[in-house]
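Two proteins follow. First one:
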Amino acid sequence: MNKHASGSHTSSGAGHHALANHAMQTTNEDIIDPGGMGLFRLTMMVITSTICAGIFSLMGDLAAGGAHTAAVIIGWAICFVGVFCLMKAFQGLSQLRPDLTGGIYAYAAAGFGDYVGFNSAYGYWISGCLSNVSFAIMFFGALGYFFPVFGNGNNLLSVICASVVIWVLAYVVTRGVKEAAGINIVVTIAKVVPLALFVVSILMFNKFNPDIFFSNFMGEPGGANLTDQIISTMISLVWIFTGIETAVVISGHAKFVKDVGRATSLGFISVFVLYFLISLLSMGIVPREEMAHLATPSMAGVLEIAIGPIGAAIVNLGVCLSLAGALLGYVIICAETPFEAAKRQTFPKCFARTNKNNAPVVTILVSAAVMQLFLLIAFLSEGTYQFFYACAVSTILIPYVCSAAFYMIVSWKKEGFNKKHAPRLSIARFFGTASFIYTLFLVWTCGWKGIMITTVLFAPGILLYLMGAHQYHKRAFCGLKDAIIVLAVIVLAIASLYLHFSGISPIV
């Protein structure tokens, strides 16, 4: 009897331990970093990194490209479907491969090898640096509304002040990524308020004019055809959504696996609704021809026409608040991607070095130095905000294409769909294929100038990759695929530089 009781107790204890172990295993599957960022912080990071300078100049940029009301609405529809599919691809990848915490880099490396993975990480990194330079130009251009000494944001004083801001933010991030993200929450709330005020002001004062909205619905006779107008909207619309993948990029700092996908979805829905409202309302206030000539940020001019000078002041203040957060957010993103790539032995070893705050100090400092170089180029070439964001879009499309292609391939091969958080196979195949087609379409819309910019910026990365391969004692280029990519980048970069300096097809 006692023996049986003892055995029963032992069996019960073993069962208890088994259940405990199962619970522990399930919990461990769900947790990435026990002290990491929760859903709210991740969502704020997505919103902050997405709502940057683009929305404040979008209306003028679309109008300057020749897009009328019908083209803008169709462009928004294409953008919504395409970016939604791309967002779902990132979300699906975070569920299928939570181990690939480097996101943009890791997906390309897992799918296509180290060199393609390096280019994906390098492209995302350079795009982030270019984005911050465009943000800095607009930031001081907006300050120029209050302090004319800053001009359009690319004069000597603006570049000097922007340099100070970049290095101060780099120091803040060296204090720790999670701490910097905490500051970002406050900035996010502060910069959404002026955007909301724009919508409320237009509606409250009944400034939306349907006659203006429909007056040039299809454009002037003899102008650009509808297809060309739609294509002209693509770069600007993609630009305002860059950053939507932020939660994936910093997923290594998330607390739970499921929060990465949720934050991405919540961030996308929030910014899309806000963007679309602002865009539609603007087209009912200012005719396209007039809007095309508004100074950057064009939203200031729109609201000034609607409610007077106070409107321009509100928008320019909103730009400053928005870009303060964007500059901080992109310093974090620029630091994270090379850091993850170095941990996976693709970037040189020094990029994986951290300080006592567990911040990737080398990547932070190198990224700040690259931004400093681009700021100098902006001053010497009088480069505009629009030019630098076009460069940023061109370079970020490489990691977008690679990530979408990887998701499409794993879904059709049914790889990893037996995991707890895996999406439905049919849904994954649809979004993987659709996002890949969309990203290829975006590459096509960039045209030859986009290819020229991309190859010139990617050529120096070959040396960086060779340095890493030498340090890790790895073969640099494997197979015909890598050789073709290297040769194409070098040849096209040389040809692009020749065309630029000969004046045949200048990049700037």
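Second one, unrelated to the first:
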Amino acid sequence: MRAAELCLISTCLLMLQLLPVYGGSADPDDFRKMTAGVRKKCIAETKATLEMIEGTEYGEFPDDNRLKCYFKCALEKFNMMDKNGRINYNLLKKMIPDPYKEIGNDMVDSCNEIDATDKCEKAFNFMRCMFNVNPMVNPILD
């Protein structure tokens, strides 16, 4: 897979939070299909459960190392985290589609000071921060 495609896919993590809140018509299931290969690899690698991962879309972030390392795995496979644990915030911001630039940039900027020595912890804290800055509306409950 080309680097550009990996970068595009990486924005899916952000888009799952932006689209329902701002009336996007994209289906979250489309994003799940696009990221299925990475999801499958990272689940196998970390032993995180699908229920655990999907629960984060609704604000459930259990303090579980499997989930923490799942996020690290996904960010690394999407080239959004390097081997030293640095998250590439600038690249993530460049990949946000124009209609979502303002809120997306605000979310990333709000979460770019995550400090943790452990890469799993840092990835987890970043994803939790992104959710907390702009919690996703549960479309089933609306």
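SUMMARY FIELD: Confidence is low (pLDDT under 50) at residues 1-10, 15-26, 137-142. Residues 3-21 form the longest helix (19 residues).
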